[in-house]
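Good morning,

Attaching, inline, the C-alpha cells for the sequence recovery test we're adding to the shared suite. The designed sequence is right after.
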C-alpha cells in the first residue's frame, strides 16, 4: 500500500480539522485512540495536531493503514445522526483532499478507490487557468473560491457541482429556509409575495421573469444533483470552456440573488 505524500497529509489534516464543522479536540482524542495513533501534540492547533500525528505514525510504520482507519472511523455516518448536514460538509472537504490520492469517502462512509490525478501540476494548471479566465469574466467571488486544485484533480465537473451547491447555500442563508433542490426554490421564489423577488413583481412580465429565474435554478439543481444511493454518481467529462460558461451563469445567478428583495419582510 502506498503512503501519503506530505502534501496529501496536509490536505487531509486540513479537511478533517476545518472549522467550523470539523473534528473537535475531544473527537480527535477519541479517534486517535480508536485508530491506535499516538497523540504527542495535544496542545497544538487542530490541523497541525492531526498532521503531526499522521506523519509520525506513517513514518514509524511505513504504511498508511492507521490513517485510513482514522478516516473511516471519523466518517462513519452514524456519528452524525443528529447533524447529517455536518457529515456532508465534512465528506465534501475530505474528498477534495483525498482526490489526489485516488480515494473518496462514499455516502455510506466507506473509502473507495477512484482514478488518481496523474500529476499535482495538472490540477494546479487547471486551477490557475480557470481562475484567470473567470477573473477576466469578473466572476462572482462565491464562484471563484471553487477554483481549487483539489476539486479540479480529475475534471472540471466537481468544481461546477460545488458551485451549484453554493447557490443552494446562498438561498438558505438569505431566507433562513432548509432543504435543497426544487423544493427549496419553490419555497423561496414562489408565493404571493415570495420570500425572494428578483424584481418588483409589478407587472405580468416581471412575474414571468421571476418564474423563469426559478425554473433556471431548478434546471441547474437537476443537472448537478446528488444521486440516490441506488444510482451511479454522475461523471461528466467537462471541458474548461463548458465549465467557464456554466460558472459564468452561476455568477449571474449569484448577483441576482444578492440584489433580490424580500417582500414578505418589507
Amino acid at each position: 500500500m502506498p503512503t501519503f505524500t506530505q502534501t496529501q497529509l496536509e490536505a487531509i489534516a486540513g479537511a478533517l480539522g476545518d472549522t467550523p464543522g470539523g473534528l473537535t479536540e475531544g473527537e480527535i482524542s477519541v479517534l486517535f485512540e480508536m485508530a491506535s495513533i499516538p497523540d504527542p501534540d495535544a496542545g497544538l492547533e487542530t490541523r497541525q495536531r492531526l498532521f503531526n500525528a499522521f506523519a509520525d505514525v506513517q513514518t514509524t510504520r511505513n504504511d498508511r493503514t492507521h490513517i485510513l482507519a482514522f478516516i473511516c472511523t471519523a466518517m462513519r455516518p452514524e456519528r452524525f445522526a443528529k447533524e447529517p448536514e455536518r457529515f456532508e460538509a465534512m465528506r465534501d472537504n475530505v474528498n477534495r483532499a483525498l482526490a489526489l490520492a485516488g480515494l473518496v469517502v462514499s455516502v455510506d462512509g466507506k473509502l473507495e478507490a477512484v482514478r488518481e490525478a496523474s500529476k499535482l501540476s495538472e490540477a494546479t494548471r487547471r486551477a490557475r487557468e480557470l481562475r484567470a479566465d473567470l477573473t477576466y469574466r469578473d466572476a462572482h467571488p462565491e464562484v471563484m473560491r471553487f477554483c481549487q486544485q483539489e476539486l479540479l484533480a480529475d475534471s472540471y465537473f466537481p468544481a461546477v457541482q460545488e458551485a451549484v451547491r453554493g447557490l443552494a447555500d446562498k438561498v438558505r442563508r438569505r431566507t433562513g429556509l432548509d432543504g435543497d433542490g426544487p423544493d427549496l426554490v419553490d419555497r423561496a421564489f414562489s408565493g404571493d409575495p415570495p420570500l425572494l423577488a428578483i424584481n418588483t413583481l409589478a407587472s405580468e412580465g416581471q412575474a414571468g421573469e421571476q418564474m423563469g429565474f426559478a425554473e433556471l435554478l431548478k434546471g441547474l439543481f437537476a443537472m448537478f444533483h446528488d444521486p440516490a444511493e441506488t444510482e451511479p454518481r454522475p461523471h461528466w467529462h467537462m471541458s474548461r470552456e463548458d465549465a467557464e460558461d456554466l460558472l459564468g451563469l452561476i455568477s449571474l445567478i449569484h448577483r441576482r440573488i444578492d440584489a433580490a428583495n424580500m417582500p414578505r419582510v418589507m
